[in-house]
Amino acid sequence: MRILFVLTNLLLWSVFALTANAQEPQISVEYDDEQTIVGQPAIVRIKVLVPTFLPQPPVWPSFEAPQLSVRLPERSTSPTSEQVDGATWAGITRTYRLYPMQEGTITVPEQEMIVTYADPDTNAEVRVTQKVPAIELVSVIPEGARGLDPLILGNKVSASQTIEANENGLAVGDAIVRKIRVDIEGTSPLFIPTLLDEAVPKGVKPYEQEPKVAESLERGVLSGTRDEQTTYVAQSGGNVRLPDVVVEWYNLEANKIETITLEGQSFDIAEIEHETQIDTNKLKALLAVGLGITLVLWLMWRYLLPKINLGIGNLRRRYNGSRYFAYRQAMGAAKRRDLSDFLRGIEVLRARGGLRHKDQNTELEDAVLSLTKAIYDNRDQSDRNTKKQWQAASGALARRWSGSIWHQSRKRKSELPSLNPMR
User: Fold this and answer.
1) What local confidence, expressed as pLDDT, does residue 302 receive?
2) Confidence (pLDDT) at 9
3) What gap in Å lies between CA 391 and CA 278, rounded to an integer?
């Protein structure tokens, strides 16, 4: 009895699972697994069916892969319907065009696709993620096109050019502009290589613009144009010839190689005329000016420079013997915390009359005494205390110096005779 109960439950669960799976979206992928020519499209269709309807559009896979160009033609997505187990399911079909860029097998890996549909029972939105199986495309090169390098395959290829230059003749610095346009039908213009990269003629310098590539897809047929422009600037005189541009391509409709030749053009660049005759009067004038400048420089070096050096030396000695120099030396020693040089600077300043007589102002002497004590007293040699004493000593010296300057200035004014003496 127990075994019968278990078997009954398993049977009911299997039926429920199959019913549930039958209500999930169905995704199918269709593509032609035959060989595809390089640059020609492989058609891939994805069909999504749901038992109800799609309240939101699906999130489609990109099918991006190395050496594969993916395009969506106009009206690539369209509604569809299909009978599933006697019921009509609604859905959407999307058509991709995959263009292989090289020969060989190109594998598009497995990708995810998100589908949102209405639940058959509750009409609520249900979001599911399903796997889109991997795709393998085999691309080949036609036997008649294997000798082409670079490989250009198409239904129709045409090319044109314009060459612009000064009609009145060219000289060094003038420019020659060459423009080329290539139109191709039946494949992408990305297959067209750079055409103006031939050997640069001697005597010119090329300036290439960025190529412009335009692609279009009309009624499932891919086509486009490639525009190139190079400006050649003349660097020297002589004859310059722009090379021919040869485009070889394989006609897929005629199954043969065709050649397009854009002929080059020759130009004569005028030589630069160099002055060969020397003006003797200008040469004599230049020599006279040169001799005059040389004589002036020699006289300055012989007589004026020693006097200038002597004057500079006297000024330097006077400055080194001045009160201000002694004051700066003492303040510099205070900044370096050099007690010996600081005391020596004060004595030199006092000897040169840079400090007033002490009178009753003993601030500097007290500051120097406190500084000496802070340096040599074993009881308080902290850096903070020493720094404080150095600041006090240098400040006292600055005030003493300022006071001395003021006193001496006032003394000089009092010694001046009166302009209007009283009789």
Assistant:
1) 81
2) 36
3) 75
In order of 170, 202, 226, 279, 360, the CA distances from 239 in angstroms are 10, 9, 30, 33, 100
Q: What pLDDT does 381 receive?
A: 58
Asked if the bond preceding 150 is cis, omega within 30° of 0, the reply is yes
Integer-rounded Cα Rg, in Å, for the chain is 49
Mention every residue, 6+ apart, whose C-beta is less than 8 A from residue 325.
Answer: 319
CB 61 within 8 A of CB 94: no
Whole-prediction pTM value? 0.54
User: Within its chain, how far is the Cα of 397 from the centroid?
Assistant: 59
What DSSP line would sit under 226-247, residue for residue? EEEEEEEEE-SSEEEEPPPEEE
Coil/strand/helix, residue 391: helix
Q: Which residues contact 93 (CB under 8 A, 6 or more apart)?
A: 45, 46, 47, 48, 77, 78, 79, 80
Single-letter code of the amino acid located at 252: L
In the beta sheet, which residues pair with residue 407?
none
Mode of pairing for the β-strands spanning 221-234 and 204-208: antiparallel
| Cα–Cα distance, 39 to 102 (Å, whole number) | 8
State how far the Cα of 414 lies from the Cα of 229, in Å rounded to an integer: 90
Alpha helix (H) ranges present in 124-210? none
In this prediction, residue 372 carries a pLDDT of 82
User: What is the distance between the alpha carbons of residues 82 and 49, in angstroms, rounded to a whole number?
Assistant: 8
What residues in the chain have per-residue pLDDT under 70? 1-22, 198-199, 273-279, 356-361, 377-382, 403-423
3-class DSSP assignment, residue 129: strand
135-140 β-sheet, strand order: 36-37, 135-140, 104-108
